[in-house]
Specification:
four-stranded antiparallel sheet; about 325 residues; eight-stranded mixed sheet; alpha/beta
């Protein structure tokens, strides 16, 4: 880990209890996040991809401490925040913000746009009401909306406009890190491009770092500096986003990339074989979590979980193949 990083996550875990009753112990645990480590530098975008249910959104909420970790470390700047209580976290809230997947559900229908955008200022702000309204107007202009929208309500806007309001709210306290949890997945394709371009412009303008979560690996490759791939609560690969398609080494990542539709109908790629369904997080297999579906599984795969190791440059893979280097060659 680089101690100059803005965010450092080490062996982070979140286990949810299952079964049992009010007075009895749980009968099992859902291991939604299970030993995740990564870092994000200031001004950097790290994209996190994986199938639905792999733990991406849980990880997002852990990073901004909307959930309390079961174990591991979260270091933000020079502070260890994984064990901070709500009171101690309060001063750090303005340095990290989150953009949610559903812009309709994330905005209170009873609050005007002005009230929604300035909501993060409710705790500890010294700005007057007039100054807060002026700030809200400036933020709306920054995200491409009009000052006249301040007194309107969320239901009066389209999905793309509501997401712009959500982005303005996240920027209200001038954060250093923004966690974007699938911010464009609920939007039309043309609107997705507008929101992604806006977020990229804002990153340059405000020096933001992003943890950008998506199920679309092609979007992450275009938007982010690095790509991290998550499977069953574990990170299996981290590499530079540029050229990721051709450089991926983990068998799961190769299957994920091969499943991306190609814009040219003349280009056909043979599917990367993978069988079965993702494992139940309450009953994870031993060893590598992907080994029951992996066509390359051999000796150590069902016995011991592979560590995430650097294979070349900034490329990290968790795989026992080729001495821990994964499958040679990527997907064209």
């Amino acid at each position: 880990m680089n101690h100059a990083s803005l965010l450092e996550v080490t062996d982070l875990a979140k286990h949810f209890p299952t079964g049992g009753g009010f007075f009895s112990r749980p009968t099992g645990w859902v291991k939604a996040v299970n030993g995740v480590s990564f870092s994000i530098d200031r001004g950097e975008s790290l994209g996190l991809v994986g199938e639905s249910g792999c733990g991406k959104s849980t990880l997002a909420r852990l990073v901004v401490r909307l959930l309390t970790p079961t174990g591991g470390s979260i270091r933000f700047g020079d502070r260890e925040i994984s064990a901070l209580d709500r009171h101690d976290m309060q001063p750090l809230r303005k340095r990290m913000q989150i953009i949610f997947q559903d812009p309709h559900a994330s905005l209170d229908p009873r609050m005007t746009v002005a009230a929604s955008v300035t909501e993060p200022l409710l705790n500890g702000s010294t700005l007057s009401k007039r100054e807060q309204r002026s700030l809200a107007a400036d933020l709306l202009a920054t995200v491409g909306l009009q000052t006249g929208d301040l007194d309107r309500y969320p239901h009066e806007f389209s999905g793309g406009q509501r997401q712009r309001i959500g982005i303005a709210r996240a920027l209200c306290v001038r954060p250093e890190l923004v966690v974007a949890d699938e911010p464009v997945s609920a939007l039309d394709v043309s609107i997705q491009a507008q929101i992604l371009n806006l977020m990229k412009d804002l990153q340059q303008q405000f020096g933001l770092a992003y943890l950008f979560i998506s199920h679309d690996i092609s979007v992450v490759e275009q938007f982010c500096d690095r790509t991290a791939v998550m499977y069953a609560g574990h990170l299996v690969e981290i590499a530079d986003a540029n050229g990721f398609h051709g450089a991926c080494r983990h068998p799961y990542t190769r299957a994920l990339v091969a499943a991306v539709p190609r814009p040219d109908p003349q280009v056909t790629l043979p599917p990367v074989p993978t069988e079965g369904e993702p494992p139940d997080s309450a009953d994870l297999p031993s060893g590598c979590p992907y080994h029951p579906r992996c066509p390359h599984a051999f000796g150590p795969c069902p016995v011991e979980r592979p560590p995430l190791i650097e294979v070349v440059g900034n490329h990290q893979v968790a795989c026992w193949l080729n001495g821990g280097k994964g499958v040679e060659g990527g997907v064209p």
